[in-house]
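Minutes, structural biology subgroup

Action item carried over from last meeting: produce the structure token record for DNA (cytosine-5-)-methyltransferase (Ignicoccus pacificus DSM 13166). EB confirmed the sequence was re-checked against the source entry. Recorded below for completeness.
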Amino acid sequence: MRRAFFDLFSGAGGFALGFEMAGFEGVLGVDNDRSAIRSYAANHRKAIALAEDISKLSSKTLERLGGSPDIVIGSPPCEPYTAANPKREKDPLDRLYKDPVGRLVLHFIRIVGDLKPKVFVMENVKGLIDGPLKKALREEFARVGYDKIYFNVLRAEDYCVPSHRVRVFVSNIPIKPKKCRKVITVEEAFKDLPEPNFEWPPNHEPPNVSKKLWRRIAKLRWGSALIHYRGSGGKLYPNMIRLHPKKLAPTVLGSSRFIHPYENRLLTVREQARLMSYPDNFIFIGGRDSQYNQVGESVPPKLAEAIANVVREAL
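Output recorded by EB:
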């Protein structure tokens, strides 16, 4: 029997892809980003792809569309919680209760409480459990009927993903997936990709750069960044990094742009998708910036599959 799942704040559907790879059936994906939900529909053809604001959706509407799922997964927006956001609220509790985007986590909890799935898994940045937030989340889930909550902090690179990524997966079961036996390097991730082109694979068109930018890129060494930006507390974060071919890639964010390790150009969307373990037949729809964002804001499918395998065993 195939177990059904709903995917809230689905984005393009990397989290859902991992669950499908593990044998689960996605019946409903919801996101208010219209380009991302078009990508979801293109890649998860058997599921209902709903372009809606979850804060305005009732659980009864979701049940009417997709029935009662065994599992609910989802990735509420991380911007209110990430240290890379210089405008995040100083008080951690304000990120959950005051910030309107941060409050979307509470809507995930609301829907989980109404649907009562056997298992739920909610992904976010580790900042989601800063300070008093962990206690607040325990109380919110207990209020809707889930007294036992686990905060599973996982590294994507431990599960065959060729880029560094630390995320917390909040769930009602412990999640300790079997780890990958080796670290996959940038060079290994790109090894069989053709030169950028407009044919195959999809989303592999070469981004244009000005001559001035090209000259700056040409001077970059492996691991060096072209620009830095300030996050919360004034901390500097690098962007436009020249990837080291023999190492793991840095964290892929929605705003990330990387320089090819050997060529003086930006990575294509397909190359960044490879760094997140997406298969080449996964299509990203929308403008190029939106495509990069869909890749960087997703759960890497290989990591999602490892989590889904644990969920399957628990069920």
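Discussion: Residues 186-295 form a domain with the DNA Methylase; Chain A, domain 2 fold (CATH 3.90.120.10).
Next step: EB to file the record with the rest of the batch.
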